[in-house]
Design goal:
Blueprint: H1 3-18, H2 53-59, H3 62-82, E1 85-89, E2 96-100
Antiparallel strand pairs: 1-2
Helix pairs in contact: 1-3
Length: 102
Amino acid sequence: ATLASTIQHNLFSNMEKYDRVIADNGIKIAPFVVLLGVNAPSVLVEISCISKREEETNLNNPEYRQKIMASLQKGITGYLSQRQTQVVKGENNGKKIHRKNS
């Protein structure tokens, strides 16, 4: 699974329990300027739209924001646990070889 899909799954499934009208708008792929040149898995997460009164009210609630943060954290740690690798120095011109742990 990709970083984006792992975060999306955790965010939506956890927040849906708290906010039943939450929409799953899926994952979009585009050359976002803030992510260009990043040499690592990266995502741009749009959590809410404060121009909608209900969403603004939710975002003003510290407990709601905490649930968002916990969902993002679970998504990131879930991705990292799937992708945990062991760096091994190989015979390949001194380049590092990444090997997934079994």
